[in-house]
Write a structure and sequence with these properties.
Elements lengths: L4 H4 L1 H16 L8 H10 L4 H11 L2 H13 L2 E2 H7 L4 H13 L3 E6 L2 E6 L1 H14 L1
Antiparallel strand pairs: 1-3, 2-3
Length: 134
């Protein structure tokens, strides 16, 4: 079951998101060469619009739960989330669409289903950009 602590404690949210971003940097789903990751991120500028888009996508408790689930399970299909979350399939699909539009997750079509995984490079870019703000 997805950890509901994300909804209850601000500190836990921040710690979970930081851990999530660290986990995502080495995520197997999206093949990223870790030795090149830092240099690539530093070489690529991230606009304020991109930072805002990613922050907006992560600014919903359900989407944070989806990201956490993907970090723990590497991949999933929509039905996996429907069985775990108290939401309709169409609502979960909308949350997945928002995360995908922000390029925080990727979807690969596997027959009649789409398999989703975290875009580790994009989450690492977000983490790097936010750290540069402070």
């Amino acid at each position: 079951m997805i950890n509901n602590d994300l909804n209850n404690h601000t500190d836990d949210k921040n710690n979970s998101l930081c851990k999530l971003m660290s986990d995502a940097e080495s995520d197997e789903c999206c093949v990223v060469n870790e030795s090149d990751l830092t240099q690539t991120i530093e070489d690529e500028s991230v606009s304020y619009e991109e930072i805002a888009q990613m922050a907006k996508a992560l600014a919903h408790p359900i989407r944070l739960q989806i990201i956490r689930y993907l970090a723990d399970n590497k991949t999933c299909i929509t039905n996996d989330l429907v069985s775990l979350l108290p939401l309709a399939q169409s609502t979960i699909s909308e949350h997945l669409r928002i995360l995908k539009n922000a390029q925080l997750i990727q979807g690969e079509i596997e027959g009649p289903r789409t398999s989703y995984c975290i875009n580790g490079k994009r989450l690492a870019k977000f983490k790097y950009a936010v750290n540069k703000l402070g």
